[in-house]
Design goal:
MetI-like fold, flat
Amino acid sequence: MSISSTITSTTRIRLRDLGRLFTHNGKVGLGLAILIFFALVALLGPLFFTQDPNGISDMQMQPPSPEHWLGTTQLGQDVLTQLVIGTRLSLFMGFVIGILTMIIAVAVGLVSGYYGGWIDEALSLFSNVFLILPTLPLAILLAAFLSNYKGPITIAIVLTVTGWSWGSRVLRAQTLSMRNRDTVEAAKASGESDLRIIFFEILPNETAIVAAQLLGTIIYAILAETGLEFLGLGDTSAVSWGTMLYWAGNNDALQAGAWWWFLTPGLCIAILGAGLAFINFGIDEIANPRLRSQARLQKLAEKKLAEEQQEDAQ
């Protein structure tokens, strides 16, 4: 068996073990259930809610009722319809921005950490420039500067440009500690190209870190995108959770007592963020052997305590 095939099989085993741990973690299971629920709402919701989410009616500012389960807005728009339709754009934006940001972070972090030297210095300087800048204020400034091009694409570009530096620094540090390991040296000795070593030997060993960084970036992207839209820096004619909050704020929903207008999108953002955070916490336990061993010891202690209580009851 060649050195290359041995390294590949070892990586495959590690990914398989990671998958098993991933599926047996309670936090990850709860987070996935929340994420799948919102994904189904985004995919299937528009098939059931076919009415125009911006359609105006004469039932203005109505509280939740059998006719309108989550009430109506100041223009008589159905809040539930807006919430369901807006889920697709908010979820899509969060994941697209998170994935694009992590692609840049992975490419910069791994290349910088693997090559070192002047390449590392140049990429580190480039990363540090964005790292020391206040990300959200810079995103607000860029979005305001590009106000003539309001829309999801502009927000995606702004948040991607301003959000990749932290992830790249974390991956660079991890790559620096891995580039001299035996598996990497063996891949070099077998004549593997640098790109193959970086993305097929080093990257699979950083899967848990990349996944955790991706989830954190998605949470940031959803919150930042919602914040920019709430400030009116997005396309206010589009329906999303952020634009719902924007119109609720513009029409003084809080003062009018229309809690259903702003509370429902806020709860959706909080629940989705909590679900992604649960997955992130679970991945941390998977990636950190110390946390994993502590969780295992806690389960054993709980099992022993339950057995002792059962024996006492008998």
